[in-house]
Amino acid sequence: MESITYDRFSSASEIAQDEINHTAPKFLPELGRQNRKMYIISGVLALYMLILTMAVGIKLSQVSQEVADVTFSLKTIESSIKEASNPLQFEIPPLNPELIVQGPCEENWVFFKDSCYFQSTIKQSWQSAENNCIRKNAHLVVVNNLDELDFLSSIVKLQVSYWIGLVEKEEGQWSWVDGMDFKATEHYWDEGQPDNWDVIVNGEDCGQLHGRIRVEKRRHWNDADCTLSCPYICHLQFSLG
């Protein structure tokens, strides 16, 4: 008699093994395809990040160079503005010896353009200096243009301040001794002047041609105590008549 096999009586382990044998061939290829997709996606992302990093690096390099160029330009402009706005940096060319002549002026006076100038060798207060100039039919010098200022800067002594014809008759109201309108003329105050520094004692109501260390530097104005003793410069307008 032939033996009869009943599948329902197969053991549980045999059934599980049979299911694995039928499922595995289908599951493994699908898993492999998913892994390949992940590898491809990861590779594409890595390549994209590399390209993006290189692009950002190049752009940052360009921006850094542009910033450096702009910074350099700003520093150049700032330096130019400072040089143009700082009158103390102006270099006065060497004075032509022919300009320091007596010309039509009296002895001990020098001639420049159409005027005579007297540089004192003694020191006096501002008012005494103006009185001495008046006795010479002149006034303390009125400096109202750069040519005259540069000429005077070239002939005065180093580190010495000279009285000029500038006086503050009322607080903040400066005027020239010859009656010329101060507001209508150019102003050549030194840096930080007038500061009325000695206001507690006598005030600083008289103008000076400010002393400087180097002769080639253009002199500017300073306000000082009128009772100080300083040398001075008289000015006389020359007339052929």
Automatic annotation (TrEMBL):
Q: Which InterPro entries match?
A: C-type_lectin-like (IPR001304), C-type_lectin-like/link_sf (IPR016186), C-type_lectin/snaclec_domain (IPR050111), CD209-like_CTLD (IPR033989), CTDL_fold (IPR016187)
What superkingdom does the record give? Eukaryota
Q: Where is the C-type lectin domain?
A: 112-235
Q: Name one Pfam family in it.
A: Lectin_C
What transmembrane ranges does the database entry give?
A: 38-58
Q: Which SMART domains match?
A: CLECT
Keyword entries, A-Z? Lectin, Membrane, Transmembrane, Transmembrane helix
Asked if the record carries the keyword GTP-binding, the reply is no
Q: Does the keyword Nucleotidyltransferase apply?
A: no
Database matches in PANTHER family = MANNOSE, PHOSPHOLIPASE, LECTIN RECEPTOR RELATED
Name listed for the protein in its UniProt record: C-type lectin domain family 10 member A MMGL
UniProt source species:
Triplophysa tibetana
Q: What lineage is on file?
A: Eukaryota, Metazoa, Chordata, Craniata, Vertebrata
